[in-house]
Design brief:
Helix 4 runs parallel beside helix 8. A hairpin with a 5-residue loop joins strand 1 (32-34) and strand 2 (40-42). This protein folds into 2 domains: 1-53, no CATH class; 66-246, no CATH class. The chain has helices at 2-15, 44-54, 58-64, 68-82, 90-121, 127-145, 148-157, 172-211, 219-233, 236-246, and strands spanning 32-34, 40-42. By secondary structure, the chain is mainly alpha-helical. The chain has 10 helices and 2 strands. The protein is elongated and about 75 Å long.
């Protein structure tokens, strides 16, 4: 909060001139320009201010509008199924999730760069038009993964209707929460399938220990090396990563 206040004061000091040096009601560095066709364009200073403000939402965008959710949840369930509380560490799992998300989202990001960023840098599109163009690839990605029931549920709550079941015009306020809900459901379904083999090993080890009368020995300690050995023999990391990547195809 203090940092935002300091930035606001500095912005006011450097970019807003005294009233005697400018026309009444006009700020030279902060203004909205109306084009002949009726569209509006913001001054460069105001665009930079808006961009810096939007950067605070970048983590939420990365987490909630990409493949990050599904991958991170599956990795967390996998670590729990193996019985390893801190191995791999959170930093390793988050880093792997980020790079795997970047790999999966590469076609989407390339489209955003070709259709929005590059034309904007060449001054072929205004900032507003570039933002609208950038929404398209992300919208198509989320629509390909979202479940129809989840999308209709949020659409009903927001009182949004779709003509001829055309969901391409779904607003982001409806599409994003529906996408998040769908991703969580898919992640738990994959996590369930991942958990079952390790649960079977735990049950078998527990039954053997009970039959041998070794009730004081924790089954988790005995089953851990067997679960790790199984995971290594089936090349578990490649299998999990490949399955997650193909699940977005």
């Amino acid at each position: 909060m203090k940092i935002k206040l300091i930035l606001f004061v500095l912005f006011t000091f450097f970019f807003i001139e005294p009233a005697s040096a400018q026309p009444t009601g006009m700020l030279p560095a902060v203004k909205v320009i109306t084009a002949p066709d009726g569209s509006q364009e913001y001054s460069v200073t105001l665009q930079i201010l808006i961009l810096m403000t939007l950067l605070t939402f970048l983590p939420a965008i990365v987490i909630m509008m990409t493949s990050f959710i599904r991958i991170s949840v599956v990795f967390a369930i996998l670590r729990q199924a193996l019985g390893l509380q801190q191995t791999p560490s959170n930093q390793i799992l988050v880093g792997l999730t980020l790079f795997l998300s970047l790999f999966i989202m590469a076609p989407v990001l390339e489209r955003v760069y070709d259709e929005a960023v590059q034309p904007y840098m060449n001054e072929e599109l205004s900032s507003t038009q570039a933002i609208e163009m950038a929404k398209g690839p992300f919208r198509n990605f989320m629509l390909a993964q979202v479940r129809e029931n989840d999308l209709l549920m949020f659409a009903d709550m927001a009182e949004v209707s779709f003509e001829n079941n055309d969901y391409s015009a779904a607003p982001f306020t409806v599409l994003v929460p529906a996408f998040i809900t769908s991703e969580l459901k898919t992640a738990f379904q994959i996590g369930f399938l991942v958990f079952i083999p390790f649960l079977v090993i735990d049950l078998v080890i527990a039954s053997i220990l009970m039959a041998m009368g070794m009730m004081m020995l924790s089954p988790m300690i005995v089953s851990l090396p067997f679960k790790i050995m199984l995971f290594v023999l089936i090349d578990g990391w490649a299998l999990i990563v490949g399955t997650l990547a193909n699940s977005f195809g």
